[in-house]
Structure formats: structure tokens, C-alpha cells
Amino acid sequence: MEQAFLAYLRGRCRHLPQVAVGIGDDAAVINPSDGQLVACTDQIIDGTDFDSRRFELDGHRWADVGFKSIAINLSDMAAMGGKPQAVLVTIALPNENPSRIAGDVYEGILEAAAEYDLAIAGGDISVYDGPLSISVTLLGSVPSGKAWLRSGAQEGDAIFVSGAVGGSLRGRHLRPQPRIQLAKRIRELEICVHAAIDISDGLSLDLDRLCASSGLGAELEAEAIPIHADAIERAQETGCTPWEHAWRDGEDFELILTMNQEDAKQISKIDLGVPLTCIGEIVGRTGMWKRNLGKLERLMPQGYVHGKSTSQATPESS
Amino acid sequence: MEQAFLAYLRGRCRHLPQVAVGIGDDAAVINPSDGQLVACTDQIIDGTDFDSRRFELDGHRWADVGFKSIAINLSDMAAMGGKPQAVLVTIALPNENPSRIAGDVYEGILEAAAEYDLAIAGGDISVYDGPLSISVTLLGSVPSGKAWLRSGAQEGDAIFVSGAVGGSLRGRHLRPQPRIQLAKRIRELEICVHAAIDISDGLSLDLDRLCASSGLGAELEAEAIPIHADAIERAQETGCTPWEHAWRDGEDFELILTMNQEDAKQISKIDLGVPLTCIGEIVGRTGMWKRNLGKLERLMPQGYVHGKSTSQATPESS
Question: ipTM for the complex?
């Protein structure tokens, strides 16, 4: 089925200038970017990252899964301040109904590609005795030496979070809006982002990773954290507070950014199309701290850790 | 387990100049190549592409699978005339013994990376309810506009095949020797390769694909095809002739190359470290033909077609 499906796919793909040779040869040839190449990869597996048996219950479709497989990589690209160019998509299809599932999944992939001007430059398809698995590699570019790293935070930096966080499991998590446009706008403004990470495992865990990578800590105005309406709804179901959901729920796919106070002041005056909220400051003392009436209370990272079954996580250094 | 394993992996990876930011951030940053970027991806799945239940019987190990997951991509890179630079490796691990299998698989991956000066620039690891699956994306470069495409063959071109073909299932297929060095040597000689493909599904099928992509055909000196010793051994088991095995067995990972007769003459005089055998000529008449005492006999493509269970294949156009 691979050959027939690739033929179908070639017909569905637009030709984009960043790809010189697309699907159908031994490899794709991508035109050199004007800076450094950025590459990220992420996989999504039925039964681990989502559950197709709940599709009817949750109102989700295979197309959502396809869309998400691209979107989670775009979110990583945004967190590098990168401009996405092309994807390679590898799919392992279950034995049952592989053609129908492949077609449905690709509806979502093609939708994401069209929305973000992404070329589908290649891929691989297999049918096997296992659940649907999609592995996407996204290629993009950044101006040379200007990638936004996790490790670049500096003492005194303002910490921003985009959008609002928490409760994404109520449905948002399958149709994430990666912050590609926001990253592009910030680059155009020549704001110097010192450090960035996307929130995939939870605000607290991912902020902790950024701090650990930078060898620094964070003091937070806890009440400034922008809480999503979904976190409030979710709190009514779980008995946790909306703030707790905002702090630890995963799959927000928002950005955490740090920059110096001058840039922070400048950016706060500009309409970026997405809210950007200052939630605290990078400090020399490691760990995460909540400012409370002049005192500091330790905040522990909580969220989703791959391969662990508890929601309480130990601090991570990656 | 992802975080701990990534930490282990960072420790095992050499720093190579082509990678500015490696494992541990949202994406890898790769230094711009001096030409165009070449990207290919291929996956390898237990039960589909190999069978771990036969390891003991066949004398294979998880490390071989890891090595092969890189080598099959290197073979595609060689078939583009590309220089490999970095890989992103995504692994889905079975629930049983995931850590041990990941460690063993990575032994082979690290061995291939060391042998071909490849940086491991990133990846993703999941544990799931399914068989081991490895998806590799390989990034490399070619001088701008000089990628070796399947579609570039010209009437009158000499057709070469590297090494010897057939019978790889006797064991060679798990430790392929991708023709990266050969491709590099040919580039250095400034031989102008018109078209190229690697033999993954069989000489006949892959040559047919090259011909179809170029809109041309091939006239072959059938007896010139270099038959591997494994094909002769295999023939004793199957009752087919060694030539039939050379013609249709897959996973040789040799290269088919076409070039004009002048370059063909030049290259035939040079020791390339690997035999390069002229097996025929590109012709205007489509299809593949065997020259026999001044007459032409039609040759049908045969080999492994993904998703088909017969060994007789219909001509393909990709």
C-alpha cells in the first residue's frame, strides 16, 4: 500500500519553494535556509498519547491526531524561535483498516501543513501488528546563533507565559495552537529572548527545566499566572483549585519566555495577537519560589513525566 | 524513563561540529551546510521488518537492529550523493524490558554513528503496548542543485551497480554497508551521475523505479549482473537460480547509478574501493529488456513491494 498511498499523497501536496525535491526519491532536498537549521521530532502513539477507543465519547477523530502530530512539533519549533519549513512524516498503521485510518490521519496533517505553510517533504508508511504511531520530524530555520535555548536565562530576566494555561484535557489538547506566529512577531520586533521552552508537560515542570538548564531559579507572582477557563471547569470536576490545574496540567503548548526588564517593558506595550503575561523573575537562587507578603515559599514542579505514573515529579535537569 | 535515558544518551554522544545544539532542548540546531539540505526517513518495526523471536536462531541482536535503522537511511543518503551529518532517532519500546532493549538498540546506533561521523542530534522515546519500532530521520547535504535523483537518467547512459547483489537474507541484510564512501569518492572525481537509487526492494524493482521516474527504459547485459556469493548459497536452498536471486532479492543496499558513456569509461579505470559493474544502457523504449543474441527479451520487475504478499510486482512509478 505504500506506493499507492505515496502517489495519492503527492497529488495532495502543494509545491512549496523551500523544497527542491519532495516525496518520491530516496530523500528530500530542502533549499538552504538563510541561517541555521532547526530540527525536532516527536511521536504520538495510540493508547499512550491518546486513546482511539474514546473517540466517540470525546468527539475526536483520526484527523485530530494527525493535526496534533504536526502541532506538537510546531510548538517545539516556536520554542526555539524558529521558522518551520518542512516535515517528514512516518506512520505505523494497525492491521485493521490501515487505508482508511491513513487517509483520515492525513486530512489533519494536510490541514496543519496548509495552515502553517509547511511542505510535506517525505516520510514512510508501514502496516504492522500494533497501534497507530506517527513520528514527525520538523525542519525549520533560525538566524545563525539566535536560537532560543532553554539554557539562556539570565538573573533578573522577566518570565512570560503566552496565552492561558490549565485544563487542556477538556479538549484543547488535541487541537493545540502552536505559537509560531507569536515567535515570528517577537523576532520581527527584535526583542532578545534569553531562554524559551514550550509547555508540553506542565507550566511548573517545563519552567523548572528551563531554570535547571540555565542554572538559575524563579521567583513567581503566583496569582499572576493566567488561568484558562478550562482549568476552572476542570477544577469543578476534580476538587483541585483552578490554580493547581494551571500550575501542573500538561499539553498547553504555550511558550515560557525570559528576557531582560527593558525588553519586557517594551513588549508589554505591544499587541501581539496573543496575551503575554509576566509571571515572575529569574533569580540566582535555584528552585521555584512563590512571593507571598515579602516571604518566599518553595514551589515544587508537578506535571506529566514520561514513563512515570505519579503526577508528582522530581526536579528534572533536561 | 525518557529523561533518564536522554541523560545517559547525552553522555554517550560525541560533540560534532555540525551540531550547534544537540539533545536536551526543544529542537536541535544544525549548522548550515554549504549546499542543499538532504533529509530522509525510514522506520524499522519488529515483526514487520525483522523478527526478534528469531534472534537466537539467526544470531542477531537488538544492536544489529539499531545499526540497521541508521544504515538504511545512510543508503538513501548515498543514493542522493549526499554527505550525512546528523540523525534524529525516535524509538517506541515494548512494555517488557524497555530499558534493556533501548540500551542494546543504542549500542548499534552509536556504532553506526561513530563509523559514519554522524551526530545524534535529537529524538524521542516512548514505551507502549506494541513491538519495538525505530524511526530515523537523517539529515545531510549536497552541493546545490547536484542531488542524484531517480529521474535524471538520459538515453544512452551506462547503468552501473555497486558491489554484488542477491541473497542478503542469509544475514548481510542486518548489517548493511551503505555506500556513503563510494558516493563521496564519485563526487570528488567530479563524475556527473545522472540518476541514482539504492537497492532496498531488489535490483529489478529499484531499477524499474529509476527508469519509470526518468520516463525511459533499460537494456541489460543480464549475465553482467554481479551475483553475490550469498545468492549462490541461497539458490541451493530455494531451487531458484543465483541470477534470479540477484535480480529480485531485496535489502542489498547497493547503488544503481547512471552516467554518460564518457564518464563511464573514466570511472571504470579507477579503483573505488568497491566494485562498480556496468550492467547495461538506458534506452528510449520504456521497460527493462535483456539483450540476447541480438534480440530483446522483456524482463519483469520482481521483488519486495511493501504491503503486498506476492513476490511478483507490477511496475511502479515511484
Answer: 0.87
